[in-house]
Each structure stands twice: as structure tokens, then as C-alpha cells.
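Folding problem:
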Amino acid sequence: MAKIVYSMLTSLDGYIAGPGGDIGLPVPETELHQHFNNMMRKISIELVGRRMYEVMRFWDSPDRETGGTEVERDFARAWRETPKIVFSTTLRQVGHNARLLNGDAETTVRSLKSETDGLISVGGADLAACLARAGLIDEYRLYMHPVVLGGGKPYFQSGLSLELRPLGTESLAQGVTLLRYAPAN
């Protein structure tokens, strides 16, 4: 059975994007980027909503093979090699190594969890909130940047109530602190 993890970069005040929808968080430099590359290689399936998928499509570009730094090219390879399931009612097609689903996310993910070994990663606050309400997320990973955005898209959706227990912390490059939690029950 797979372990489902919701993992996002956040500001100290709990936002994954600023008030205008822009990311607003510092771009990961080499050491932090390598951490994310290593995590991407451990993922069996990446679950994303439409907005997160559209942001991450940047890594599907053939230019990512030749442009940027080695750590960026490495992440692009890991992203493309990871199977993705995109939950959207508006998209009509998705790119390489991705499958589009517009049905019930809870039922689909419950089935995936029981049929998959390894790690299933959730990207995007709205999809994560749906799965959290269904009790499907096994771990929450908040990568806290020492930045305050003052508003925007929160890591935890408004109205979502969870009781969590700490799993640990880790200090990373660029002043980022990884906070790990699991559901208390």
C-alpha cells in the first residue's frame, strides 16, 4: 500500500502563492533544488490538479533538456519520468507520462493507494484538501521559507480542520525548514 504525501513550499505565514497568484517564494538554489530532485525520484505517482499541472508543465519542455543548470535538467528528467495523474474538468489533454481524470478524486486515489507501492505525492492545495477530508493523506510536508507573503493561496484550505502529530523537522538550504506531520488518528 502506498503512502500519500502532500508536500509544498510555503511562506512562514502559510501561503504557497502570493495574493496575486504569483509564487512569491525564493527560487530554490542548487542545494535545495537537489533535495527536491531526490524527493521526485522517490515518487511512484504524482497527483496534481489543473493549476499545479499547468505550473509544472514548464519542466516538460524540451528546452529543459539543454537549458538551465545541471540541477534543473536533472529535475526535468525526474519530473518527466514520474507518472502523473491530473484531476481536471476543464483540460482536454495532458502531456507526456500523464493521465487525465475528471471523475471522483477520492475514489480514484483510494484505489491507487491500495494498488500502488511506494510514495504518492499530492501537488496543489485544492486537491490536497479534498484528499485530506477523505482521510487519504498520510503525511504533510511544509517546506517553510523565511518569507512572509501576507496573503494568497494557503497550504491548508480555509475550513479544513485537522488534528496532526509532529513527525520531525529538518533544516535545509536557504533557511528553509521542513516540517513533517501525520494525522493524529
